[in-house]
């Protein structure tokens, strides 16, 4: 699981490996709150036994480039007016890794075993709006999967949305789900 | 009213002894963290678990075992009136065991209708003191050895079990389901060992945090099977207090009876 290869697959299951093309759209809703922080988000593919077939994206507060070795209390805040603590506080060289366990399900299923950052998977938090991801999985064994999107926000809540799908597909399928607060519309199209 | 009071008095008289004792607990602020994260712990005894309203726990025998099996000291230990506390930074990936192990021998006997005890509260057992203070042929002389473990567990990153290896002494709990991998909707199985061997037919009591904010204590009562295992269904997320004790005759001299007890706290998350 410590691979630095993008979208590394831990395919322990025997069976035919097939290519799958996934097009995702993830909406982060614009929330009218007094103190808004961009959510931490994890996106992954789950097998039927809930193990992780692939990590697709993990967005969290990144370490400050050229930042101090330790997040010193006197260091300037990452963003003007940002609070000095919490998920989006002083980034230092650790960034928001302290708060990654708040993506509870992702942390349990794979986050806690990963060496971060993971090239092509981890990245900075995203602004409200729709975010598209296009992923080509070279060898995904036939079976039932779930696309899982989990979001956790400082001063906010946590939400988990999933979309079950099958591999392989004969024709392209388009699937949708919707979060209730922390996540907006999620869509997934699976192409052969 | 009269009809009501009688059964109540009877019920009170029939309460098991343990119900009268205060419950000990160590409450971690969090149990699932990333490496380098800090946890703070409160430790106390009280009638209801996790309610800070009686006495601070004594931390003289606190031992923190790191994931690599080494012992690490607590940071900022302090004792208040109602609770003792200490901090811990999880510098290693894996599971830490936080344990207070109290052992001792105590004697009680009947001296002309009065119950005498030795050693006095807060003083340790010594063979010399025992020989001097306890009459050998006292009426109803009972010499009891006690081994009490008070534990909790926290994990940075991926859970591990090096720190969880049983010592083989007294009553101990080992994971079947990981101690820091507990979720509502997923029954958890643990195993009790007595002197390192599966402890069958042990009664286990489990109480969820928050007794102060509900009318029922809501104890969950369980019993270990032949293999020492038992399974818990967590009704809701939160902290849980788990306790069990067994009595036998496998005592060290001069004790003739032995009481082994085990108490631990677990955090259950929502999936």
Automatic annotation (TrEMBL), chain A:
Signal peptide segment: 1-19
Pfam families on file: DUF2271
Superkingdom, taxonomy of origin: Bacteria
Annotated keywords: Signal
Low complexity compositional bias, start-end: 65-88
Keyword match Signal: yes
UniProt region (Disordered), positions on chain: 65-96
UniProt protein name: DUF2271 domain-containing protein
Organism, as annotated: Solimonas fluminis
From TrEMBL, chain B:
Region (Disordered): 251-271
Record key words, sorted: Signal
Source organism, top-level taxon: Bacteria
Position of the signal peptide: 1-21
Record-linked InterPro entries: DUF4198 (IPR019613)
Compositional bias (Basic and acidic residues): 251-260
Pfam family, one: DUF4198
Protein name: DUF4198 domain-containing protein
């Amino acid at each position: 699981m410590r691979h630095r290869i993008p979208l590394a697959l831990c395919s322990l299951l025997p069976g035919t490996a097939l290519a799958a093309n996934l097009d995702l759209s993830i909406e982060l809703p614009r929330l009218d709150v007094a103190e808004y922080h961009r959510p931490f988000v994890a996106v992954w593919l789950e097998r039927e036994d809930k193990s992780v077939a692939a990590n697709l994206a993990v967005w969290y507060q990144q370490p400050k480039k050229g930042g101090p070795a330790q997040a010193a209390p006197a260091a300037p805040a990452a963003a003007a007016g940002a609070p000095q603590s919490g998920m989006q506080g002083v980034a230092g060289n650790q960034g928001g890794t302290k708060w990654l366990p708040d993506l509870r399900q992702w942390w349990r299923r794979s986050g806690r075993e990963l060496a971060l950052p993971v090239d092509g998977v981890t990245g900075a938090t995203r602004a409200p709006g729709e975010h598209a991801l296009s992923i080509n999985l070279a060898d995904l064994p036939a079976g039932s999967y779930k696309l899982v999107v989990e979001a956790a926000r400082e001063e906010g809540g946590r939400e988990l949305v999933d979309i079950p799908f099958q591999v392989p597909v004969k024709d392209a399928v388009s699937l949708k789900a919707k979060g209730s607060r922390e996540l907006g519309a999620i869509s997934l199209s699976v192409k052969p | 009213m009269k009809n009501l009071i009688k059964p109540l008095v009877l019920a009170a008289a029939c309460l098991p002894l343990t119900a009268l004792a205060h419950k000990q607990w160590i409450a971690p602020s969090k149990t699932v963290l990333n490496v380098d994260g800090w946890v703070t712990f409160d430790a106390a005894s009280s009638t209801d678990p996790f309610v800070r309203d009686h006495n601070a726990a004594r931390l003289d025998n606190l031992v923190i075992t790191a994931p690599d099996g080494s012992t690490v000291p607590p940071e900022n230990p302090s004792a208040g009136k109602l609770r003792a506390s200490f901090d811990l930074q999880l510098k290693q990936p894996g599971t830490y065991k936080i344990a207070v192990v109290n052992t001792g021998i105590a004697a009680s006997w009947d001296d002309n209708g009065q119950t005498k005890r030795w050693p006095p509260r807060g003083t340790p057992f010594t063979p010399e003191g025992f020989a001097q203070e306890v009459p050998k042929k006292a009426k109803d002389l009972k010499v009891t050895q006690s081994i009490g473990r008070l534990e909790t567990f926290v994990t940075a990153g991926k859970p591990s079990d090096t720190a969880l290896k049983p010592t083989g002494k007294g009553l101990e709990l080992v994971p079947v389901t990981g101690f820091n991998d507990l979720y509502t909707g997923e029954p958890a199985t643990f195993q009790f060992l007595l002197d390192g061997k599966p402890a069958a037919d042990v009664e286990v009591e489990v109480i969820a945090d928050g007794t102060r904010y509900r009318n029922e204590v809501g104890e969950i009562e369980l019993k270990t099977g032949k293999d020492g295992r038992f399974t818990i269904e967590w009704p809701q997320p939160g902290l849980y207090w788990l306790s069990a004790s067994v009595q036998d005759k496998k005592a060290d001299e001069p004790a003739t009876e032995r009481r082994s007890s085990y108490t631990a706290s677990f955090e259950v998350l929502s999936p």
